[in-house]
Amino acid sequence: MTDRPQETHQVVVVGAGPAGLLLAAELRLAGVGTVVLERHAKRPDFCRGFNLNARALDLLARRGLDRRFVDEGWQVGHAAFSGLPVTLNLAGTATDHPFSLGIPQTRVEEVLEEHAAKSGADIRRGHAFEGLDQDDDGVTVHVNAGYRIRAEYVVGCDGGRSGVRKSAGIAFPGTASTRFTLLGDVELAEEGALPFGVTGPVFTIPRPGYVRIVTEDREPPADRDEPVTLDRFQAAVDDALGRHVELRAPRWLTRFGNAARQAEEYVKGRVLLAGDAAHIHPPAGAIGVNVALDDAFNLGWKLAATVGGNAPDGLLASYHDERHAVGVDLLASTRAQVVLGEPDDRLAPLIELLTRVANHPGGNRAFTETLTGLDTRYPMDSCQEHPHPWLGRLAPDVPLSTDEGEVTLASLLASGRGVLVDSSEDRAFLAQAESWQDRLTLVGASGLAPSAVLVRPDGHTAWAAHGEPSKQDSADLERALHRWHGAGRHTAPASVTRQRNVER
Length: 504
What we know:
The protein has 504 residues and is of the alpha+beta class. The chain is built from twelve helices and 27 strands. Helix 1 packs parallel to helix 4, helix 1 (18-29) runs parallel beside helix 7 (288-308) and helix 9 (348-359) crosses helix 10 (361-372). Its cofactor is FAD.
């Protein structure tokens, strides 16, 4: 393969699913040359999922993308949860989108691909990853279309059987599947022959023009990768129902298990992983696409800063530190939901206890925020005895008044840069951050609960001051600026937006 023609690019993303497409757009937002390799010549005509959760919508809002989806989808005021007879209510949780959004994953990918392409990403369908060679200076990617790409970094967003992960030699420990489930998108020969919802061991979901049927695969073949045929699916459904319901016109037939695995390293040299390439888990809670988007959002700005030469030491490693920890919790919560659904009488007292907790308003909120990732808090340095409640969490989208008009905190992040908002009287924090104005948006504004806040490009709060400027606040800000944005550059004073003379 060494005689193949070679191209040179900054980053290669393998996989044009939600994680890969959002990541490509994030990299292009920072001007990073990005190629996306996708082995499928066209997007599959079946749909894996139908859900964007509140956390994913909050993140997309930080780039002004949420309305593209909200305007098309249907809103449900609760979060998905398996195993307990309770409804997890999103009202009152820490989100600007207190609902789950029903929208086909195929449409999510269409919107993200359009966004990435408009941003300048080079998306190549029908170009499959064949392997990689990594050294200290970069990575050589071999492509089935008869060429190689030399890149500074490669990101595997290529699913649970990731070729990038395997080629990089990244271990994928966890638990193997012990139970298997069949899923089929089919038509019913006789309309109404199968009621929607749960019918014994069969779950039927209505979809436009077809139904999605889910049932247990009681006798999976020795080769778990063996394609599911309509005859096999028909037999499994008939066996589960105890009667024959004729199925036809299959759109998608598949088998999945309850395996839970996580990559040991999300960052190995110049190879990184995101989405299912980094973690697989049972589908309980309908969380998969949402976590993939979360990975990409966390990684994009860090990788862009690294490629651009502005990254402080350890910035790229923080992607592993932050998202691997989230992945551990993800696997635990999805596995717990599977266990709660087991037909085991010994679980009855546990289910009863958890149901009581989840039916309590405080318990319901805690459950909901934990299972949807709304409680995500990344570790931040602070010497304050009582750090601000926003620290480490996604900063809420609060309204602000500036000399240029009314804005919201989320809208200030649309450019992909970090933001420092200062509502203190003398704007001392803005003056302190002037050397970082090439990487930060500096804003003087009123309407902010903390007197000042530093928000990372991914929307998470890196620093917040409680009151008027103090030496401790200033020292903490200096540390946060260096931690997340590297050394400042001595430039001309920043042009900042000053506070508007408006009482709010």
